[in-house]
Design goal:
The chain is of the alpha/beta class. The protein has two domains: 100 residues, Urease, subunit C, domain 1 (Roll); 284 residues, TIM Barrel (Alpha-Beta Barrel). 28% of the residues lie in helices and 24% in strands. Strands 1, 2, 3, 4, 5, 14, 15 and 16 form an eight-stranded mixed β-sheet that branches. An eight-stranded parallel β-sheet has the order 6-7-8-9-10-11-12-13. Helix 3 links the parallel strand 8 and strand 9. It is globular, with a radius of gyration of 20 Å. The two termini are 27 Å apart. The structure holds N-carbamoyl-L-aspartate and zinc ion. N-carbamoyl-L-aspartate binds next to loops.
Length: 421
């Protein structure tokens, strides 16, 4: 089937252009103008909205398995497409956790026919010897939680060096949740020092191993400084969440909306904000971390982010706080480049047809009860923002029409090495 997307302002070469996009067999087959419109079975009129490459989230917790009551592959990827994400990278802190090849393969198989967007799977190796086989089994990247290692996972310097050497050998990347438990205070508060110390420790080990590092959700000014000062020496990148970028403890009841790392004070939040805008922070990750309301009451950290992250950024764009170019970098281009993804992220002939349509002039009130995610909580609940995703197209198929999901599960693919990265 041939599909044309007409009347869009299309993001091409860092500009919005009046271009017609033709899609065939899941790929962008032609870009055309009004004078040479290609024939098509179906035309979609996007009514002068923005057409953008689909966003890529490098930090999603889709849960499923024993945590299906919090979120599962169906609800998690529906939330992704409703929020304009066409590819998400899924975190390994599931139950059971993704610590070896057997669990990774089981998870990929479970996901296969149930996902609405494309999904890459992280793993968190217990044994350094497993790293290469995990990579060959399509692990998109590796992740460690320095403050919460999995059972029998040794994250001492000696063992981390082994793991990092192996990751470096297979040219992959290690995502690090950098918090040092020993520096939490007596009430178990996640201090600034615990983050800064952990970042510096990993930078030191990266220097010894040449392992590529991605620091997830950096929340402190000093942490960003440490990363910035070492970027020319080691291959490191970092991410911020929309909540650490926009919210602080002056605005939000941080106990009710607890997350790890926790929301920080205004000074740290503003430093994160400015670093996202200036380019010192490379990527925005949603850290979509769904929990049931009962689990939240019991203090579980995190909240869903997939459905609100892009609208929040568009709202900042409409307020002249960030450019569309920068949004493209932090939500599309940098995630793709850093994680080595192929054939996506550009509206160009031959690229996969993963596209989203955005109405930047439409006001929306964030309402947790409308989330497709099972998690109905958010510190942004009630915020009025400009920017709505009005369509999501994945692998050439319209999956979301602005109101509901209109494709069947399995429209998304499990990302595979050699094909996708
Ligand atoms: C995450 C979760 O719930 O899985 N929670 C969070 O507050 N960020 C864990 C994590 O990403 O560290
Ligand atoms: Zn996370």
């Amino acid at each position: 089937m041939n599909l044309n997307i007409i009347n869009g302002r299309v993001w091409i070469n860092s500009n919005l252009e009046d271009i017609i996009i033709s899609i065939k067999d899941g790929k962008i087959s032609k870009l055309a103008n009004q004078d040479n419109i290609p024939e098509a079975d179906v035309s979609i009129d996007v009514e002068n909205n923005i057409v953008f490459p689909g966003c890529v989230d490098v930090h999603s917790h889709l849960r499923d398995s024993e945590f299906s009551y919090k979120e599962d592959f169906i609800s998690g990827t529906q939330a992704a497409v409703a929020g304009g994400f066409t590819t998400v990278l899924d975190m390994p802190n599931t139950d059971p956790p993704i610590i070896n090849v057997k669990e990774l393969k089981k998870r990929q198989n479970n996901a296969k026919n149930r996902i609405f967007c494309n999904v890459g799977f992280y793993s968190s190796p217990i044994k350094s010897e497993d790293v290469n086989q995990l990579r060959l089994s399509n692990a998109i990247a590796f992740k460690i939680y320095l403050h919460k290692p999995f059972e029998e996972q040794d994250l001492s310097d000696v063992n981390l060096i082994r793991i990092m050497n192996r990751i470096s050998e297979c040219d992959s990347i290690l995502a690090v949740h950098a918090e040092d438990r020993q520096l939490f205070d007596q009430n178990n508060n996640h201090t600034i020092e615990s983050e800064v110390h952990a970042i510096n420790r990993i930078i030191k080990l990266a220097k010894q191993t040449d392992c590529k590092i991605h620091f997830v959700h950096v929340s402190t000014k000093e942490g960003i400084e440490a990363i910035k000062n070492n970027k020319s020496i080691v291959d490191i990148s970092c991410e911020a969440t929309p909540h650490h970028m926009i919210l602080n403890t002056e605005k939000i009841n941080s106990e009710k909306h607890y997350c790890e790392p926790p929301l920080r004070d205004k000074e740290n939040q503003e430093a994160i904000f400015n670093s996202v805008v200036d380019g010192e922070i490379d990527i925005i990750g949603t850290d979509h971390a769904p929990h049931s309301l009962r689990d939240k009451d019991e203090g579980k950290p995190g909240f869903p982010g997939l459905e609100i992250t892009l609208p929040l950024m568009i709202d900042l764009y409409m307020k002249n706080k960030i450019t569309l170019q920068r949004i493209y970098e932090i939500l599309v281009d940098n995630p793709i480049k850093r994680f080595g993804l192929r054939n996506i992220g550009q509206i160009k002939e031959g690229y996969n047809a993963d596209l989203i349509v955005i109405n930047e002039n439409k006001m929306n009130t964030i309402n947790v009860n409308n989330f497709l995610s099972k998690a109905k909580n958010s510190p942004f609940d009630g915020n009025q923002i400009l920017g709505v995703v009005t369509k999501t197209i994945i692998n050439g198929q319209v999956v979301f029409d602005g109101k509901k999901i209109i494709a069947s599960p399995g429209t998304g693919r499990v990302l595979e090495k050699e094909v996708d990265f």
